[in-house]
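Final paragraph of the annual report: two paired records, presented back to back.
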Amino acid sequence: MEKNYTIYMRKMHYYETDQMGIIHHSNYIRLFEEARLAMMDKEGLNYASIEEMGIIIPVMWVECRYLLPLYYNDSVSVHTCITKFDGIKMELAYEIYKDGSPELCTSGHTGHCFLDKNMKPFRMKKFYPALYNKLKELTEEKNFKEKITNK
């Protein structure tokens, strides 16, 4: 993943395992959500505060690739970054690693949109310019670093 990402760390719990003793596939989507909210908090974009502004950010789609299994008591880090943002839609990328290992266990992406309380899209740039500029800045920082590392 690009260098401009946020790392969310936590230990996997027993209740997240399935009959085979590995972390159930549905829990990876929860890890993505936890990491996304932690990234937003770290960047000063508390989700509860955004909701208080009358904005909701529903998930439109999820993609998850399970490469190596995770197990109970594994400590993991989820690397998260915003890859696209246009004021109406936002996409994020995720990579999950076991602590102490360079091997990628899981990769994924989520797509989101921004809606008002009536479930209607709105012009974020016009009505919430500070939020728009912060999200745009985070996306542009990522794209700038990506361009530098790909030269």
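The closing record of the year follows.
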Amino acid sequence: MAITPPVSGIAGAFYLVTSGGTIGEIANIRSWSIDLTANEVDVSGFSGNGWADSVGSLKKWTATVEGSWNYSATSGMDDVWDSFGDYVDVRFYIDQANTAYFSGTAAVVGLTPSTAVDAAATFSATLSGMGALTYNTA
């Protein structure tokens, strides 16, 4: 059996539905992360002999996107900014060929532009998922 090598993040990407209604890449993204969680419900009973039992319940996901600040129509940063407080369709590409990606609908719930005298201007965006996040392969 052949072992598949790890995937490099060098060609990762972040896309969202732009103001024109088409999905487009947001330029200058340096990193993204997705956090998937499920609520835990205690279902312990007397027959558990003192051991707790639990089951997974409601699932949710959040994401953070970070990149260099470049507010322009050509970078797509204006679409991120204009989406603040709104739901948008998003894609998080993970592989070098941009064929595997996570997709879903999320609200842009946080934007943090940042700069320092000795560093590039940056931003981070926080997204809160609405419904399922799916993993897609070509």
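The helical segments are 77-82. This concludes the annual technical report; the extension proposal builds directly on these records.
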